[in-house]
Amino acid sequence: MNRDSPDFIVEIDGLKTEPQASSTPPSFQNRPWLSVKWRCCSVYSRVYRNRRGDAYEGRCPKCGSPVKAMIGPGGTNNRFFEAG
What we know:
The protein contains no helices and 5 strands. With 84 residues, the protein is mainly β. The protein has a 5-stranded mixed sheet with strand order 4-3-2-1-5, with no helix packed on it. The termini are far apart.
């Protein structure tokens, strides 16, 4: 059966089909980030580059444990880390 056939098309009154706004605050949109798995609470989150551009700083979304990853020569190209 073809996915374009009427059997596969569902219309729900009141359901918005427009793209939803980003849940990322406007101040963080397009800002570089790292992915962090927080060992303390077994959750993942993004840690964004600070406004000075010299480090990535953030806190665990559950317990608030801080992390800071400095940016500089001799660093790493990794984008995924564990902290906490």
